[in-house]
Amino acid sequence: MRRSVVVILDGLRRDFVAPDLTPNLCRIRQEAEWFPDHRSVVPSVTRVASSCIATGCYPDAHGLEGNALALLEDGRLVVHDAGLPEFFPHRKRVTGRSLDLPTLSERLAPHGGAAVFSNVSPGAAYAQDPDGFGTMYHRAGSHGPGRTPLDPPPVKGGTAGDRHIADRFLETLMSDAPPAHALLWLSEPDLSQHDSGIGSPEHLAALRAADEEAGRVFDAVSELRARGDDVLFIVGSDHGHQTVAGIVDIAAELDRLGFGEALAAGDIAIAPNGTAFLLYASEAARDLVPALAAAVGEQPWAGDVIAADALATVNHTDRRGLALYVSMAASEELNAFGVAGLSHTAKPVTGEGKPAGCGQHGGLGRYEQAPFLMIAGAGFSAGATRNEPTGLVDIAPTILAHLGIAADGMAGRSLASSSPAQLHPERKSHA
């Protein structure tokens, strides 16, 4: 039986995969191909990353542009938190679709099915299967195919919750009727990095615990292979982290720069995304965008300011009102634990955001754009290193290729036995 098994360790940046920190991942690496030029997406946040993994496409096509994003409702731009459990039903009411493209769960419904076990935000979990085609196990609501209700896990994010979710995942994986595709998404080390800082004792303890879960799944995969199953095993992360250098109130800054009236009128809207923010503009405010981009670009807290036609270079589009993507200023400076990579962050719509010294992501900083990826199975050489650019959109077509199912319409490509010459010409430098 051909099967795929995927484990995502949320927020694990590539340079923290090391023998003293992640012995199980290093053990897996000896049996898998390692991809040292693997990249996250833009913005480098989990709900976007999850949508890209699920669809094999970028935000310009699947429609989920950020952890926070704006929808045009009754002629006004309304900012939403895509992490809330009610977000995808609301987006479907507004736009007609939960996501604009089918997910792996939808594609695999007639081919053995898919099961997702997730301990991250509801929106990030449901992005894998927003319309209930497969099994979803999450604390905000669990279901079987066709949205048959299941008891949700009595857990929250963190190490204990990850262990509970992994236990249930392994029960399903080793059952008499396993799905063709099974995904386990752990909350660590992302949560501990956000709360305690990258390289902190709390972060390193959570990282080691997440590494143990990856090792348990790898051992189960080895047992399945011994039984005769042809298992593709993928283990990786969705993004890395930078350390917060300071928090910027983007709304206050735009008001200071002379754009407060348009912001108050709802003609422009800000969607903070950690170390980046999205700025939307109505048709009435489109003429303001060049001056706004120029003004923002002159600020010390701004890094890359990407607007208009240049949005395509980060795999976004202005079709839904997006006018600017701004990656906050980043540096190679060290944090209090001697870990490189600092970035300014955008103050969220509600709350103050993570303070200086904590971990954050969303922009184009070197380390937040450095997740890791390892793949073991048919078409991959044990212990090999593949020095070609890869991205999150390559995961879905790699899975479908292993299962013998067409990956029509995907931006990514199967990584099995591929060469750099097979790279898609549309792959962008920032993605």
What does this structure look like?
- InterPro entries: Alkaline_phosphatase_core_sf, Phosphodiest/P_Trfase.
- It comes from Rhodobium gokarnense.
- This is Arylsulfatase A-like enzyme.
- The chain has 431 residues and is of the alpha/beta class.
- It is built from 13 helices and 21 strands.
- The strands form 6 sheets. The chain has a 7-stranded mixed beta sheet, with helices on both faces. A 4-stranded mixed beta sheet has the order 17-18-12-19. The chain has a 4-stranded antiparallel beta sheet with strand order 13-14-16-15.
- Strand 4 and strand 5 form a beta hairpin.
- The two termini are 34 Å apart.
- The C terminus is likely disordered.
Task: Summarize this entry quickly.
The chain is α/β, with parallel strands linked by helices and 431 residues long.
Write the topology of this structure.
Blueprint: E1 2-9, H1 23-29, E2 33-34, E3 38-39, H2 46-55, H3 59-62, E4 68-73, E5 76-81, H4 87-95, H5 104-108, E6 114-118, H6 122-126, E7 135-137, E8 142-144, E9 148-150, H7 159-173, E10 181-186, H8 190-196, H9 201-227, E11 230-236, E12 242-248, H10 250-256, H11 260-264, E13 268-272, E14 276-281, H12 289-297, E15 302-307, E16 322-328, E17 330-334, E18 340-346, E19 359-360, E20 373-376, E21 390-391, H13 395-403
Parallel strand pairs: 1-10, 1-11, 3-21, 6-7, 6-10, 12-18
Antiparallel strand pairs: 2-20, 4-5, 8-9, 11-20, 12-19, 13-14, 14-16, 15-16, 17-18
